[in-house]
Amino acid sequence: MESQNLQVVFGVDNQIHPKPVNIIYPASFGKKTPKKIKHKFLLIAGFSALIIVFISLLFYIPSQSFNLMTIYFMAGLILIFALNIIVVVLLLTDKLNSKMQTDLNSKIEIQAKNGHGQLPNSFNDVTEKLKASYFEDLEKKVQEKTKALTQRIEELNAEQQKNKESEEKALIEEAKEEATLTSIGEGVVVTDPQGKILVFNQAAELMTNWTAQEAIGQFWFETVPAMDEKKGFLIPRKDRDMYKALTIGKKVFSESIYLKRGSGKIIAANTAAPIILKGQVIGAVQVFRDISHEKEIDRMKTEFISLASHQLRTPLSAVKWFCEMLINGDAGQLNPEQKEYAQNVSDSNERMISLVNSLLNISRIESGRITVDPKPTNMNELISEVIREIKIKSDAKKQEIAIDVDPNLPLINIDPQLTREVYINLLTNASKYTPDGGKISVVISKKDSNLISQVTDSGYGILKRDYDKVFQKFYRGENILKVETDGNGLGLYLVKAIVESSDGKIWFESAEGQGTSFYFSLPLSGMQAKKGEVTLTS
Amino acid sequence: MAKILVAEDDKFLANAYRVKLSKGGFEIKIASDGQEALDSLEAFTPDVILLDLMMPVKDGFAVLEELKKNDKWKKIPVIVASNLGQKEDIDKSMALGAVDYIVKSQIPINDIIAKINNALK
């Protein structure tokens, strides 16, 4: 900082602990007594003596008494003594002052005559105290002043710097803001509380065919109209994102179709957010992005999935049916070995079919475009249907399936197809990963505002180290890989995706070698209907 | 002997139908696209139609629509046998008048016989 330029010269060096002042009183007085002091002393002493004698004579004459004279004489002596003291003090103070003002580190030598050795000794203390307090006081004052001055200078400097910096900062901010606004690919529009355009960036210009110069000052809603594609009319002002942001004071997201100036349109993903200052909406910012290209890619993906599903399933169906006919003996009875081979082909083919199904379903769930079509559903009927389907597999393994559905359950507004998919996957797993003769149970009950489903088996269980991987895509537990080759590691991933997309939760409890319980919750209020573009495949 | 018209463009699947249905005691005709299926109706009027959806020239939905528009054919029960398994495909087929919907990869061929018998009742 600037403080080093500031020097305060005050006759003493600016030390925190200055050296003490030594006052020396030699044993033999007189030898080193300075002449000036001696003369001064003698002069004053002589003068005092004269005054005493004069006063004594003044009192002696009228009193006429020897005793009185003696007293006067004694008083005179005392007076001389007192004056002597005063002189010594005066001399000391004089010397001390002059010394302190020049160099307090030097020695002060005081010599007293008349054998008053004790007097300077007591001055020792006085001087010490005097020195200490004077010094401390001085030091303190100097430090305080220095500090105050430094502080003030620093303050002034800082203030100046601040002003300069804030000026620069403002310029930088302005430049940054402009660069950001012009370089980002998203259209940015800022309006006042009435929806009048204040800021209109380059991307917005490109997307709408309006120039900023023309757009600024116009009303956003009229300048860039939005269209409802399905219904084919212009979206009224009250349903526009920006209007909602301005009136509700909350962020709004949507997909809108905007009409370009002249002709043409864009599909845009929007975010409109209010600008709030001290609880007051003072405007809104809308950021929008042209997603026409994404929409096209998405449509192509959907088409591809549908095509792939058809194309993959067609040869798989042919393999399936011919295997079935072979095994059935439609082409003549097979010997046991031939039958076994045909069965292996059939089993592998089934795995391939279920893998294709899972992949299709996952791509649909992941796309977020899955249709959720809730219907009031009787849980008991739904689970009974699922069990009927699973029974072929569980009967083959001589497994028991017990169902316990809370009889007081109302109809739940859920998508039966999606919920069915969850139960089928959980029950297929339960059967698959439970040894022959094991037990499986399904419990459906109400808890608070949730419907809780529990699928328990007495199977192999899940290893502790696999706990956090159970729901991962393609993950299969280490312990079951050896006992059950059939499986693709997609079932639980799909189940979790379905449950969570319906505001539910899924969790499990497991003990290795004893079994596993999977639980999932769905809100009793049911699933939210969603008009998607795809459904799960059956 | 009940007559079955199968509209199926995949020759292996068509072959499976031919073998299985013949052995099941049905008279069978295979059409390899939608238009061919419609064109063969006059000469071979079936008791049940097994109809694929994704076919060249004319797809299954278009065939269903034309069948239902024609007083002569609209009473013939149609079972849609496709590998499209989405709900909207199923819903659309049923809305157009199909009596049943089969996802081929999900059903044993034996069950198709059962479904045909069911449609014949």
Nutshell version of this structure?
The complex is a heterodimer of chains A (538) and B (121). Chain A has helices at residues 35-63, 66-102, 118-183, 202-208, 212-215, 220-223, 241-248, 292-328, 336-367, 379-396, 416-432, 478-483, 491-501, and strands spanning 23-24, 108-109, 187-191, 197-200, 226-228, 233-234, 252-259, 265-277, 280-290, 375-377, 400-405, 412-414, 439-447, 450-457, 505-511, 515-523. Chain A has 538 residues and is an alpha+beta fold.
Structural overview:
The complex is a heterodimer of chains A (about 550) and B (about 120). Chain A has about 550 residues and is of the alpha+beta class. Helices cover about 50% and strands about 20% of the residues of chain A. In chain A, the strands form 4 sheets. Chain A has a 7-stranded antiparallel sheet with strand order 4-3-9-8-7-5-6, sandwiched between helices. Chain A has a 5-stranded mixed sheet with strand order 11-13-14-16-15, with helices on one face. In chain A, strands 1-2 form a two-stranded parallel ribbon. In chain A, helix 1 (about 35-65) runs antiparallel to helix 2 and helix 8 (about 290-330) packs antiparallel against helix 9. Helices cover about 40% and strands about 20% of the residues of chain B. Chain B has helices at about 10-25, 35-40, 60-70, 85-95, 110-120, and strands at about 5, 25-30, 50, 80, 100-105. Chain B has a 5-stranded parallel sheet, with helices on both faces. The longest helix of chain B has 13 residues, at about 10-25. Chain B is globular. The two termini of chain B are about 15 Å apart. The chains are: A alpha+beta (about 550), B alpha/beta (about 120). At the A-B interface, helix 8 and helix 9 of A face helix 1 and helix 4 of B.
